[in-house]
Specification:
The protein has about 375 residues and is an alpha+beta fold. The protein has helices spanning about 15-45, 65-75, 100, 110-115, 125-135, 150-165, 195-205, 230-235, 260-270, 290-295, 315-330, 340-345; strands spanning about 55, 60, 85-90, 95-100, 140, 175-180, 180-185, 190, 215, 220, 245, 250, 255-260, 275-280, 285, 355-360, 365-370.
Length: about 375
């Protein structure tokens, strides 16, 4: 070399075989991940569930939504969706609300949709990572992963209808006379309950998964009562004896007394069930004098009698006596009354049917209308 000139020399480095192998592995891993990532991106946009995804223990990976629904339905793996909350009330009524009524029932299609949606809710990167995870280790899902909110509107409508049915006023007890008994029908007790109390009881039962029959402890019951004093006053009848009515000249109707044992009736009422009939025997009291008795006693005694022969009388005289006797017959005298012959018989006239017959006038016998009586 000439002076003053510097010659640059190039030095070559050697790469070892181990380093080359590491680079190749890294490139392969990156390529594999990139391939899986591309597959994940494609899978996120496909119509099948990610691989190795199971729902309630049933493998649905790689299935379409329809196929997964059919598979889950046929497997019977979706259980407990027919469970119902059942509340019993004091009046014997029962309210049953199913999961469907409450809006929390899960169908096979719901579970299939959950499996299909798994890993698809993020962006390209997160969806791809979810796909990679499923492809490598799988994903086990269950109905517990489906969060459902109660259908409050529908549930409250069901509760409201039940509350209207339950909230009843106390049915008043009633009575009637049947034969020789006083029949008392014991009315039903009233019952009032809050819609909110029923609603909260249903929600609480669903929350705690209490699906056996539960006794509802809320609400207020009214008593079924009857005013036996008022019933007694309405039923009671004082016995009344028959008397002879001097104005109508007839016997009045007697009245049989009616009553019942109030203490016995109250005891029967207290032990009877709601809505049942109670038979209370009526007590009859006969009056001192009945109509039949007094009627049979009237005019039974003959105080006096007198007769005379009309064998020698003329037909006109017999006619006149017959008319006069008919006018007197049946006349009733009450104690203190006076009998007037002329007042009772009245004027004897031809218009009344009287005929001329012998009569005494001034000590002589003369023919006179109505004579001979």
């Amino acid at each position: 070399m000439s002076a003053g000139k510097r010659v640059a020399k190039t030095r070559k480095k050697k790469i070892s075989g181990g380093a080359i192998a590491g680079i190749i592995v890294a490139v392969v891993v990156v390529a594999a991940c990139a391939g899986i990532g591309v597959a994940g991106a494609k899978a996120a946009n496909s119509d099948v569930i990610y691989p190795k995804v199971s729902a309630n223990g049933i493998d649905v990976g790689g299935m379409s939504l329809v196929k997964a629904t059919e598979t889950l339905d046929a497997s019977g793996a979706i259980t407990g969706q027919d469970d119902s909350v059942k509340l019993s009330f004091p009046n014997g009524s029962i309210l049953e609300v199913s999961r469907s009524d409450a809006g929390i029932a899960v169908t096979p299609e719901d579970v299939a949709r959950m499996a299909y949606d798994y890993g698809r809710s993020g962006n390209f990167v997160t969806n791809s990572l979810s796909y990679i995870k499923c492809a490598l280790t799988g994903a086990a899902l269950s109905t517990d992963d489906i969060m459902r909110s109660l259908d409050e509107e529908n549930l409250r409508a069901i509760v409201s209808e039940k509350a209207v049915e339950l909230n009843t006023a106390a049915a008043e007890s009633a009575y009637r006379i049947s034969g020789d008994n006083l029949i008392i029908t014991k009315g039903a007790a009233g019952y009032t309950v809050s819609e909110d109390d029923i609603y909260n009881a249903v929600v609480n039962a669903f929350t705690q998964e209490q699906f056996e029959l539960q006794e509802f402890s809320g609400g207020e019951s009214g008593e079924s009562t009857i005013d036996l004093d008022a019933v007694y006053d309405a039923v009671f009848t004082e016995p009344v004896s028959a008397v002879y009515d001097t104005e109508t000249k007839s016997v009045t109707e007697s009245v049989t007394g009616v009553s019942f044992d109030k203490a016995a009736a109250q005891k029967l009422f207290n032990s009877a069930g709601l809505g049942s009939d109670i038979a209370v025997p009526l007590i009859y009291t006969e009056p001192e004098m009945t109509t039949e008795q007094l009627t049979s006693m009237l005019f039974r005694d003959v105080l006096a009698s007198k007769d005379t022969s009309m064998a020698t009388s003329s037909s006109n005289r017999i006619n006149n006596i017959t008319i006069a006797a008919n006018a007197i017959n049946g006349t009733i005298l009450n104690p203190g009354d006076e009998f007037s012959y002329n007042g009772t018989v009245g004027q004897r006239t031809a218009a009344k049917g009287y005929k001329p017959a012998g009569a005494y006038v001034g000590g002589e016998t003369v023919q006179e209308i109505g004579g001979g009586i």
